[in-house]
Design brief:
The complex is a heterodimer of chains A (about 110) and B (about 110). Chain A is an all-beta fold and about 110 residues long. Helix content of chain A is about 0%, strand content about 50%. Chain A is built from no helices and 11 strands. By secondary structure, chain B is an all-beta fold. Chain B has no helices and 12 strands. In chain B, the strands form 3 sheets. In chain B, strands 2, 5, 6, 10, 11 and 12 form a 6-stranded mixed beta sheet that branches. Chain B has a 4-stranded antiparallel beta sheet with strand order 3-9-8-7, with no helix packed on it. A two-stranded antiparallel sheet of chain B has the order 1-4. The chains are: A mainly beta (about 110), B mainly beta (about 110).
Chain lengths: ~110, ~110
Amino acid sequence: DTGVSQDPRHKITKRGQNVTFRCDPISEHNRLYWYRQTLGQGPEFLTYFQNEAQLEKSRLLSDRFSAERPKGSFSTLEIQRTEQGDSAMYLCASSLDGGAEQYFGPGTRLTVT
Amino acid sequence: AQSVTQLDSQVPVFEEAPVELRCNYSSSVSVYLFWYVQYPNQGLQLLLKYLSGSTLVKGINGFEAEFNKSQTSFHLRKPSVHISDTAEYFCATQGSSASKIIFGSGTRLSIRP
């Protein structure tokens, strides 16, 4: 068990560019979650998947954000036309189907200049 | 709707002193409760969780928390802190459907030698 991994760990981009992050969950976990954490705040829920199905999306997830989990394994989070307000740590977590405990990855820190 | 309030944004304590980090939750349904720790430049790590049963929950690193339904609280305690406990601590709640986690805004614990 290698835990939840995220790539890249850091991303600096210019405003208006598109970025994509990847999350690899713990292999037997069916559920995968994305959260966003801004400086000085707790993580905020963005969306989650049960296998390949996206079951819930937060209103924080604007039209510029899209997440996929095509084969029920890894997931990608894409942000189009990035804005400075998108600067944050993007966290991924996974859990067993119906299990309460979520295991978090190290996060991807996005800086939009 | 579920919510979590962490009453203190920062708590400074001396090394080897006891500490209590306060957390109150709001929910009209049964919930799960958690404390997570985030060390500088690291991801979230689960300290302890309350799902049901005994209201006193023991976690890692000598931390414990008590679920108090009448006061809707889930305060975190440690009898004697160490420099290595310096971190951000997040109280969190999750509905019994085990989907998204709702985090508090965090309490920064700083340990003075």
